[in-house]
Amino acid sequence: MSPKTAQELKEEGNTAYKEGNWEEALSKYTEAIKISEDSKEKLVFYKNRAAVYLKTESYNDVVKDCSQVLDETPNDPKALFRRAQAYEALEQQEKAYQDARAVQNLDPKNKEVQAMLARLHKIMQEKIQEHSRTSGKVEQMIEILFDVSQEKEKRETSANNLIALVKERAGAELVVEKGVIGRVAQLLKTEKNKEIRLSCTRALSELCKNPLKVKPVMQAIGLPWLIDLMNSTDASQVNATQYTFQTIINTLAGMDMKNEKKPDAFLLEENKKEIDSTMVVLTKAITSRSMSGICRDAVVELLLKNIDYKCLNWAEKFIRAEGMTKLLELASELEEYHYESSMDTSPNTRMTTAICLSKVYECCYDEKARTRYLEMVEDHLRDMLLSPEVEMKVRSAVTITTLLMGPTDVGNAIIGKEGTLEMLLVMANTEDVLQQKVACEALIVAANKKDKCKAIMTQGTDILKRLYQSKNDSIKVRALVGLCKLGSLGGTDASMKPFAEGASLKLAEACRRFLINPTKDKDMRRWACEGLSYLTLDADVKEKLIEDLPALRSMLELAKSGDMNCLYGVVTTLVNLTNAYDKQEILPEMVELAKFAKQHIPEEHDLDDKDFVDKRVRILAEEGVGAALVALSKTESANSRELIGRIFNAICEMQDNRGLIVQQGGTKALLSLSMEGTTKGKHCAAQALARIAITMDPQVAFPGQRSYEVVRPLLKLLNIECSGLENFEALMALCNIAGVSESARQRILKEKGLALIEHYTFEHHEMIRRAAIQTMVNMCLSPTVVSLMEGDNDKFKYMFLCTSDEDEEIVKAAGGAVCMLLSNSEKCRKKVFDALDWQEILQFLLSHANPDIQYRGTVIVYLLMTIDKYTAEKIIDTHCKDALEAIAKIDNPEVVLPQAKEYAYKCLKEAAKWKFIKDPDATDD
Fold first, then answer.
1. E strand segments, 536-680
2. Where does the pLDDT of residue 604 fall: very low under 50, low under 70, confident under 90, or very high at 90 and above?
3. Which of 665, 552, 558 shows the shortest CA–CA distance to 618?
4. Which residue has the higher pLDDT, 189 or 383?
5. Domain assignment of residue 526, yes or no
6. 888-906 in b/e burial notation, b at 16+ Cβ within 10 A?
7. Is residue 323 part of a domain?
């Protein structure tokens, strides 16, 4: 078969366009553009593709295709008009107005253009008026803000007003037009007032949300200046500037990570220079010696957020810009070596660096790239170890620890190198406190795999025991954690105990002493938590800890501080306490097979039964674990976010705990967790949200905008890869949210949720199917859904057929949906008769033993009989007449509801009106 010509592809594209098949049309036009060699012909294909992009609301692509045409033929009316429509949708009214005027000059009688010009002219006039009104405000505000002799309160108010001003289109234009940005940049170099600095920074971020203003702002202030602005010890200032940086990146790339909006290819290409410059500036800043620790953390966080292939795919460019070298240099920093040339770091720097290293490794897609990554790490460590100085050996151990916390494959490969583990053991066995400390930390993190654990147990247990006798608490607690980790080698298997019976409880008691001692610093307590994270794999230790409220509260208080160094220890301990880890299902057949093969069979501890787990979960909820998890959920580590999601979900499994989680601020954190992280983590967070939405009024649990934001994660649970329980709970939650308001229903529709909900109305599982149909009932309150049911499809017919289901709850739900649809749609009333079994269905409803179902049947019949005389006759000529007469005569409310009796009477009156039956009110003469 010969390949299709460009014209044939165009015709197929036209057919697909007429049928509303946008994906097919787009594919055909794109293919035609690729193979066409005729430049004039190609321009037609570009215009046709732009028309499809308009339908799919890909407005930047419309602008790109139309501009391609207009570069060749500047007066093409179709290209001008389509670009004008795109500009209008992008709220670039000036450009839209310019193109529309050009079309009017070419085609004065074009009514669509006339209507567009009328709209745009009105907007332009309003902008002119708004501009003149705002101009005075700007002048007054500028005068006060930049006059340092003014009162402090007045200047702070003016700075806050600047934020509000730049949110308005006219205000933003005036601020740029009058050169206020440059003046703000100058002001912030000398301004001492923290509130004014913060407000001006926030104003910049608001201004940078505007695609037309972001480049002028960047030119006026410069990225190095923005780094200087972020270089502060004030966390609020650092966070505000970090947000400004991310806003600039988002606007330039057309992405929004919060709403899962990926970068726009057209904008990426158009703004490539600015985006790459941002990456280079951030990369160079990693090892700046003049930078504060929290500012450095913010720089690394910005890189790791955007380096992913789903975002800006910076990994390769980052490596070329020597980003890996800088990260590895940062990974070796420790506070004991503090020189004038040292980098300032925060308690969270090592963890943030580890996550960033891990993210870069994840973005190395092929084996070649990953091998190169490992070689860079090996070269860096080799250069350090070639030095005879002890400091370099210490720094190399710290780097290995950081790698084991981040890209574990790389860390394990380094530990597996001949001599590395031996070097750490030798360092741990010296009398040098610093060497002991860093070696202990590396050994603790290295003992993640059983082969490493066994090697360390064989060679290092005695060393760790000796170090545990140290008078230096920092060494003692690290050695303790090492022993705890080795003692947890058996995991949750109650039959495996590497140390003697009772050793785990003794180690737990030692950890407890460090944890509850108020004289110990936060670092000591953090290490104690890490020790417990290994020991609480033992159910005896779990029960001991949950009953020890002082220790439990001390751990939760440590988590609430937001110190990310305690993240692993606290979160893992909580996962163990709640049994929120995945458990391998043990089949009886496999047990018998294992016995026959004389293989070890894991045993579950009696204290891990559901009753004990539920008790632990309840205590944690009452002690405020939600607030602790909220503080720790700010981590960028995907694995840690998954663990936090698991804990939240385990707590929300118990209905009584859900209100406590809402009170402790859990819903906001859960929304964030459901959007970013591992697939399992996002599902756990979404399921926790679903459980909250089932139990509580969504307007209370998710106030304001959150009631709409929760829709997307819930819809993610309507996936065949999710469990039946997740599907069911998501549907129940969506049912409640759909009943809140039309705005909530529209959000579900916008997120393409209706098709997902409808899919589950065909589910074999009765409970899931029931939940889906109940959700559809609330969705039918939307006029949009009513219109869809009226369309040329079987959606309404299926819902009507569901009213004869075997499950009474499904019948009630479907009956309620049909009642709503019939009361709001004449077309749906006529569609009832498309079902071949409509008579049997109506009779089934009217004669049902359940009074609620019977009531729905009478309403449906009444709504049908009010269509016209012909329809009334068709219904009354069936057995429905006998059923209606019987319902109308029964006075027992337990058998027939008064409302059903009333509607049955109305049906009979309607039939009597057309003389089909005798009037029920008539008396016999």
1. none
2. low
3. 552
4. 383
5. no
6. beeeeeeebbebbbbbbbb
7. no
Torsion sign over Cα 149, 150, 156, 160:
negative
How far from chain centre, in Å, is Cα 742? 23
3-state secondary structure of 876: helix
- Average pLDDT in the 88-99 region? 86
C-alpha–C-alpha distance, residues 581 and 568, integer Å: 14
**C-alpha to C-alpha distance for 642 and 639, rounded to whole angstroms:** 5
Cβ contacts of 286 within 8 Å, gap of 6 or more: 296, 299, 300, 303, 323, 326, 327, 330
**What single DSSP character describes residue 343?**
P
pLDDT at 491: 46
Is residue 848 a contact partner of residue 888, using CB atoms and an 8 Å limit? no
Which of these, 24, 76, 82, lies nearest to 51 by C-alpha position?
82
**Given 77, 109, 141, which residue is the final one in a domain?**
109
For residue 616 the two structure tokens come to: 């632990």
CATH of residue 906: 1.25.10.10
CATH code of the domain covering residue 51: 1.25.40.10
Across 299-320, average pLDDT? 87
How do residues 334-385 score in pLDDT, each as one tens digit? 888 777 778 999 988 988 999 999 999 988 888 888 999 999 999 999 998 8
The alpha helices in 168-234, defined as continuous H runs, are 169-177, 180-190, 194-207, 214-221, 223-230
| pLDDT > 50? residue 243 | yes
Q: Which of 88, 109, 130 is the last residue of a domain?
A: 109
Do 622 and 651 contact (CB within 8 A), yes or no? Answer: no
| Phi, psi values for residue 261, rounded to 5° | -90, 115
- pLDDT, one tens digit per residue, over 478-512 is 888 878 877 665 444 444 444 545 677 888 888 88
Q: What pLDDT shows up at residue 396?
A: 92
Name the domain count of the chain.
2
What mean pLDDT comes out for the span 613-638? 91
Q: Which domain holds residue 805?
A: 797-925
Does residue 25 belong to any structural domain of this protein? yes
Tell me the pTM: 0.71
Distance CA(515)–CA(554), nearest Å, equals 7
Assess if residue 202 is contained within a domain: no
Task: Output the pLDDT for position 855.
Answer: 93
**3-state DSSP of 38-63:** CHHHHHHHHHHHHHHHHHCCCHHHHH
